[in-house]
Amino acid sequence: MPLIFNSNSLFVWCIDESEEQLLIDARLCDAQLLQLEKLTNPQHRLQWLAARNIAALYLQNAIYYKPNGAPMLSNSPLNISISHTANYVALYAASHQCGVDIELVGRCAARIERKFASADEVEIARNIFPKNPHLLIWCAKETLYKAAGIEGAEFRKDLKITGVNVDEIGGKTLSATAFNQNKTIKFLEIKDLLVTYDY
Predict the structure, then answer these.
(1) pLDDT confidence of residue 199
(2) Is 9 a residue whose pLDDT tops 80?
(3) For residue 85, how many other CB atoms are within 10 A of its CB?
(4) At what angle do helices 30-38 and 42-58 cross, to 10 degrees?
(5) pLDDT interval class at 1 (50, 70, 90)
(6) What average pLDDT is seen over the chain?
(7) SS3 string of 154-195?
(8) Per residue in 14-26, pLDDT tens?
(9) What is the domain extent for residue 187?
(10) Residue 54 Cα distances to 8, 25, 133, 171, angstroms
C-alpha cells in the first residue's frame, strides 16, 4: 500500500497506482461514481480516489460532502479534512471540526507573504522551520481556515500564528488563533512534504 504515514488519525498516501487500481479499493457507490465522472483532470481524479481509499481501508467508511462543501464520513461521528498536492493526499480524522494541509517542502510561498503573513509570524516560523518559514505559515493558516469552517476568512487578519510550544520531549507545535479562538497546530516533515493539522 502506498500509505507513507499513519497515526490512526492522520494518513498520508503517495499515489503510485493507476486509476483502475485505485477504483478497486475505493468501494464507490453509484452516486460517487457519478461524482468521479465529473472530474476531468487526471491528477484530481487520482487524488479524489486516493482519499476514498484511505477512508475505505483505514476508517471503514465512505466520504460524502456537507452542504457547505466540507468532506464528511457517511457513518461516523468523526470529522475529516482532506488536502492534496502533486501525487500525495492527506486525510485527518478527529472528534472536533478539523483541518489539514499538505504541500511539497520546496513550494515557494514567500512571494505572496503580504497576503497571509505578518513579519512577526515569519520570524516565529523561521525559528522552527528555517528552510521554508513562509510555507509553514501558509500550511498552518490553511489548516486553521478548514478547521474554522467559516467562509471568507482573511488569512492575515482572522488567522494568526502567535508562538511556538515545545513539549517535554522536544516536539514543537504552533500556537495560533482563528477568529480569536486559541488553536494548536502540529506540523510534520515527511519525505519532501510539509503536513500541518490542528490538535
Answers:
(1) 85
(2) yes
(3) 17
(4) 150
(5) low
(6) 94
(7) CHHHHEEEEEEEECCCCCEEEEEEECCEEEEEEEEEECCEEE
(8) 999 999 999 998 9
(9) 102-198
(10) 11, 9, 29, 27
Measure the CA–CA gap between 186 and 156, rounded to whole angstroms. Answer: 20
Q: How many domains does one find in the chain?
A: 2
Residue 143 pLDDT > 60: yes
The domain boundary, picked from 98, 131, 153, lies at 98
> Is the overall model pTM greater than 0.90, yes or no?
yes
> In terms of domains, do 149 and 73 share one?
no
102 vs 143: CA distance, rounded Å:
9
> What are the residues facing 103 on neighbouring strands?
194
Helix (H, G, I), strand (E, B) or coil at 115: helix
Residue 56's CATH number: 3.90.470.20
Tracing cell 461524482 back to the chain, one arrives at: 35
In 3-state terms, what secondary structure has residue 14?
A: strand
Name the H helices within the chain. Answer: 19-26, 30-38, 42-58, 113-116, 119-128, 133-148, 155-158
